[in-house]
TrEMBL record, chain B:
Residues 55-120 form the Glutaredoxin domain. Coiled coil: none annotated. It comes from the Eukaryota. PROSITE patterns: GLUTAREDOXIN_2. It holds the Pfam family Glutaredoxin. This is GLRX5 protein. Keywords: 2Fe-2S, Iron, Iron-sulfur, Metal-binding, Redox-active center.
Amino acid sequence: MPVTAESIRNKLAAEMGAVHVEVEDTTTDHCSTSFKVLIVCPQFEGKPLLQRHRMVNTCLTEELKEIHAFEQKTLTPEQWEKQKSE
Amino acid sequence: MNHLFRLSAGLFRPGTGVYRRRPVSERHVSLVASRLFSSAPENNELGQLIKKDKVVVFIKGTPAQPMCGFSNAVVQILRMHGVDDYASYNVLEDQDLRQGVKDFSNWPTIPQVYFNGEFVGGCDILLQMHQNGDLVEELKKLGIHSALLDANKDEQKK
């Protein structure tokens, strides 16, 4: 099953208890299949960036095998609210 | 800080950069070294490789000619901070290296940045660290004085 923005969004929402997920297919910007994701998840609280990204990587292990490039922004609900108001 | 964001957005276009006329002493190590990475105990060699220099990056292409927007961004960020003495390895030259470094760090993509033998992250993480000031701090811990600190000082004097 090919990886789509939809499948990524669903997996992140389901497995990580994310409160907000945005997935953008950025394939046209790059040489091949790429996605950009924004994930807001309370489980990121207190975790450094690398650990947050690794959580996402683990969740998407299967998908990442097919994807060429992957950008991610990982925020806690608090950071997300703050960013929205800026 | 807004000007930093606009500047950062430009980082993702390959071939663009903040060019300053001064000798660039970035060492690029050409690894026509299938001898290094074709056999199983890659971890050991890679482990040594990342400890050889304070700042080590695995990218697509070279600092002089990055072959991908994300790799370019890493090179440009380091350049902005005045870090030009670092080791960079071109994964496009060696498929074993390209896969090996992903297995080693358990990280699926290139570029990969290491400080003092420790995996820092990819382009996203470096960019966020650059934007929120963490990169300056981390460089300081490595004994590297970021050029942006001087730039800020100049700004404040005006």
